[in-house]
Amino acid sequence: MSREEEIIKLTLPVNSNRDHIQGPSAAPVTLLEYGDYQCPYCGQAYPIIKQVQKHLTNKLRFVFRNFPITQIHPHAQHAAESAESAAAQNKFWEMHDHLYEHQQALDDNHLEKYAGELGLDLTRFNHDRSSHAHTQRIREDFLSGVRSGVNGTPTFYINGMRYNDSWDLETLLKTLRSKF
Amino acid sequence: MQGDGQNTPIGFKDPLMQLSWINENDHAYILQSRYMIMSGITSSTSVLKPGTPAPNFTLHSAPDQSMALSQFRGHPTILAFYPADFSPVCGDQMTLYNEILPEFQRFNADLIGISVDGVWSHLAFSKDRNLHFPLLSDFEPKGEVAKKYGVYRSQDGITERALFVIDSDGIIRWSYVSPIGINPGAEGILKALESNQLQSRNQKM
User: Fold this and answer.
1) B93 lies in the same domain as B192
2) Which pTM was predicted?
3) Which of B30, B37, B46, B178 has its CA 20 to 30 A from that of A42?
4) Structural domain A3-177, CATH architecture
């Protein structure tokens, strides 16, 4: 058996009740990312995903799950909690984008500032954070990644299979296009 | 130069044989090793399999501290051989395992990282990545423990990316060698710990 050809599957299927999703549910191809807001490689992938979405429009469904590597990224957990708090106010993607666009400043003061800039209810936002309202969900994301063979960030899955190739724009687009 | 037999130089004498202190047996051994190195055959073809008692070893975990595998008897142990400290990626294998440590601890399992790097390199790496488990130095004689487990890459002087799950009695329950460039993640380890737990429960019943 060639180990390189081992197929590694997503163990927690995409679920619109829990996942953060962009694009139609009937899209022929689903790209899922396990990411960390403080990870520089995820930061590099961010504009590439935007481009991919622009090229593939409604043919693509994009899903983001949390995989904070907290022991090397001290702000990753709070950043993830902020995005989840924003999600509770229907602004997940706005916060997700904002965090990747301001990756160099993710300390608590900045996180609160970003919430203000996005027009979130700050009392609720801060309460969510202080009560760790979304910690459990982030842990669930993380563990689903561990059990699906996430081996660093970002790790991508295409239609439920781990994608091991390069995620430069050209390669990623070519692979995604080959699925429809 | 055509037809000159350039691939088999006439009158070629292996310089090794010119050395008076190398006898014919040594020479044959050296040629064989050379062949193995050049053709990519490594000792990892004999990686220790499940059911084998895990060879004991004592290695430095810090400049002034050693650890023996036998100290870990009584609960499961994960041995993670990896090529080198400081791989240039986020969430490299050791950093990832560090983050997943609480999951291993649910099985009462200890994690040990091993590479041929020296203790000072390990110390710096461990500090940089905030690691909460020991890194052992298979440094002198280089790769000796990796060789015992069949996961030394003599062609490049580093260990394979190899995982072993050892049960509480010191028996290897699972082993896996990943392609050197691919971080295997933790799923295989967790599966092995789960089936090991099931097995030992069944034995007690």
Assistant:
1) yes
2) 0.83
3) B178
4) 3-Layer(aba) Sandwich (3.40)
